[in-house]
Structure formats: C-alpha cells, structure tokens
Amino acid sequence: MPGAAILEVEDLVVEFPRDHERLRAADGVSFGVGQGEIVGLVGESGCGKSVTALALFRLVPEPGRIAAGAVRLGGVELLALPERELRRYRGAGIAYVPQEPGEALNPVVRIGAQIVDVIRAHRSVSRKAAWDEAVDLLRRVGIADPERRARQYAHQFSGGMKQRALIAMALAARPRVLVADEPTTALDPTIQAGILDLLASLARDEGLGVLLITHDLGVVASACDRVLVMYAGRIVEQAGVATLFEEPAHPYTRALLAALPRPGVSRGALPAIRGAVPDLARLPPGCPFHPRCPVAIPACRDVEPAPVALGPDHAVRCLLASPDDAAGDSADRPEERP
Ligand SMILES: Nc1ncnc2c1ncn2[C@@H]1O[C@H](COP(=O)(O)OP(=O)(O)OP(=O)(O)O)[C@@H](O)[C@H]1O
Ligand code: SF4
Ligand SMILES: [Mg+2]
Question: pLDDT for 60-92, tens place per residue?
Fold first, then answer.
C-alpha cells in the first residue's frame, strides 16, 4: 500500500426502509484508502457502490440512513461531526464526483466561475489567479479550448464534458481523497485514458487518495493499486490489483474474471455471470452469493462467511477460504457443480 490510510471506513451499514422490510445497501463495509493510493470499487449494478460513496459524505438520500459504522478522514470521525463542521471536510478533505452530473452543475453560472467559487471557498487567491487555475484544471481534465469553454454554461457542454467539469471542480478544492463514481463510463477511450492518467499523476505526485467506482475491470487493471469487490452490500474480496487478477479467492471475483474476454484484461463493462443479482431486501440466508455460486457447499445456505485474511493485503468472505490457503486455491475445493 503506498501510504498510511487517510480514509478509513469501518463496519458501515446503510439501510433503506421498503414496505415492511429493510434493505441494507451497505452491510458491514470496511476498507481504507491510503495516501497516494487508487482503490477500485467494483460490483454489479445495485450492489451498493453509490450508496456507500454517498454515506462517506453523509449524503445518503432519504429515506435511507446510516445505521452504523465509522468514516474517518485523517483520524477525524466524519459521521459524528455536526453538519456545519462536516461541510469543512466536504470538498477540501474528501471530494465527490457524482455518477449522474444531473444537477451538480449550476445552469446559470459559467463553468469557469463555478470552479473559481470552489477555489476561493477553500483558498484565499485573487479572482484572476483562480480563473487561470480553473482554465488550467479544465485543460488537465481533457477539455479542448479551455479558455473559451470556461466562459460557457452547462447546457453548452456534452454529458462527457460535464463529467470532466465536475472532476475539475472536485479537484479545485485540492482534496486529500477523491471519490469518483463511474467517472469515465460515458467517455471515449482516449479521454478516459487521459482522466485515469491525471488521477494517477495526482496520486503519485500529490498523494491524492482515490476511491474509483467503476463497472470496468479494464479500468481497475490499468488504474488501481487495490480493489474492493462488492456483492449484495458487502465487500466480498479486497486485494492488491495483481493479487486480485492472479489469485482471485472469491467465487464471485473468479466468475467476473472468467467471463472477461481473453487474452489479458480488455476494457469493457462487468461481464454477465449466471443467475440474477439478488434483491437486497430479500437476501437468501447464509452466504448471499450461494444461489449463484458454482462451488457452494451445504453450509453456505446457513452460515454467512466472515472476512478471512489471506495475506497482509488480501481478505475474502467465503466459507471455503482459509488463511493457509493463501492463493485461495486449495486442492480440496469441491468440484464445480454441473
Ligand atoms: N434512494 C433510494 N431509495 C431506496 N433504495 C435505494 C435508493 N438508492 C439506492 N437504493 C437501493 O440501494 C441499492 C444499492 O444502490 P446503489 O445505487 O448504491 O447501487 P450501485 O452499486 O451504485 O449500482 P450502479 O452500478 O447501477 O450504479 C439498490 O439496489 C437500491 O435497492
Ligand atoms: S461461502 Fe459458499 S456460496 Fe459463498 S462464495 Fe463461498 S463457496 Fe460460494
Ligand atoms: Mg452507482
């Protein structure tokens, strides 16, 4: 891991009431993001990635609520702060690039001026210096002709340009941690590579910690240092990127990787794996993956697996994993069911 964890998330639980049930979109989520580290968060649609990201900012939409857990930034417990104090950390401490640009940009303020406002809210610099910095940020996120674009309004930007403007706006506050929710999904491959390079250089040169939410295992392979694999509101495996691709220990991770085109890991959305994504309000008992798991044993229907450490930077939630089985590849693993 490149640096000490700046962001630490511990046993986070986020619930939504639904009819007479409660749906847990995050259930005991724990992870860290180190200084200068890019951590990928992957999982199928609806598994709880965005809800987890929003919870870090205490921005879970109503009627959802954070039922338990801790989120520490540089040791400060964000979930316990009064709202007014929390605002000081949003942006400058930890910044968010939302999945949907939607209403995040103000339609009646020029893009450049919105970035200037963020810069001046966090640092005392002249309007002129802030404007130059805003133009430079737009250039760095791959917006051509940034001087002209900075004077335009959101409706003059395409979807991909809005996404990049939001990344520029998030970086304008010079955060210690950036949480970017699918920041490159809508972008063409060249722009996407440019954004990932920018994040990598900010991580390397300025120690920015990044939580990168993505559907794209190619993005994970090329940009991330470590990966969190999420299933049904839980982190089912976390590992360094090389370990995850070479020695995946969770059957879900293996299924995702096995379904990728070969050779190597090419870019593309998360592959489909057999069975349906479960309804989070009606999870099966035991391991939530058991109805789809090709190697399930009878105990999987009753016992929910706890995290098992397979190495200093590798943990998995599967009944078949044991610490002696460092590669998650024990010889006595049951045969795949037909
Ligand atoms: N506003 C809401 N009200 C009720 N339930 C919600 C709300 N937002 C999310 N959920 C529930 O939380 C679960 C997790 O949603 P989330 O948006 O975090 O998924 P995701 O992993 O980000 O998916 P995607 O890859 O499609 O963005 C969803 O399955 C949904 O049931
Ligand atoms: S605990 Fe059982 S069902 Fe769950 S992933 Fe492991 S083998 Fe599969
Ligand atoms: Mg999402």
Answer: 999 999 999 999 999 999 999 999 999 889 888
Q: Tell me which DSSP letter residue 44 carries.
A: -
Indicate whether 120 and 249 sit together in one domain. Answer: no
Tokens of 323: 């610490």
Establish whether residue 255 lines the binding site of ligand 2, counting it when its CB lies within 6 angstroms of any ligand atom. no
Residue 330 lies in a domain: no
Ligand nearest to the CA of 287: 2
Please give the distance, rounded to the nearest whole angstrom, from the Cα atom of residue 215 to the centre of ligand 3. 9
156 lines ligand 1 (CB under 6 A): no
Domain residues for the domain of 152 are 106-156
pTM over 0.85: yes
Residue 319 neighbours by CB under 8 Å, 6+ apart: 287, 297, 299, 300, 303, 305
Sign of CA dihedral 88, 89, 94, 100: negative
What percent of the chain shows pLDDT beyond 70? 91
C-alpha 315 – ligand 2 centre gap (Å): 14
CATH of the domain at 70: 3.40.50.300
Spatial separation of the C-alpha atoms in residues 19 and 64, rounded to whole Å: 13
Nearest ligand, CA 230: 1
- Give yes or no: residues 282 and 235 share one domain: yes
Domain tally for the chain?
2
Is 285 inside any structural domain? yes
State whether 10 and 124 are in the same domain: no
Q: Please tell me the distance between residue 17's alpha carbon and the centre of ligand 1 in angstroms.
A: 13
Residue 293 Cβ inside 6 Å of ligand 2? The answer reads: yes
